[in-house]
Amino acid sequence: MFYSKKEAVIEHLREVSLQGLPFYDVYYRYTEELDPKTQLARVQGEMVYSGIRVGDRVLVEKIAQTVMRIEKL
Prior knowledge:
The protein is mainly β.
């Protein structure tokens, strides 16, 4: 699938800095799958909402298997 938006839950979160820019390693699990596996996305700070936390229910937007945005539900 080229484009998708799916509901997920944040499992783990790690803030990292790459060349002075904020990034997040976001570990999430889709809520719709029967046997969900934890996924990992490294995203820039502006690709996530302010105050992102473990346990949040989110909407993960992907284009060509690359996470482009994570929005809080």
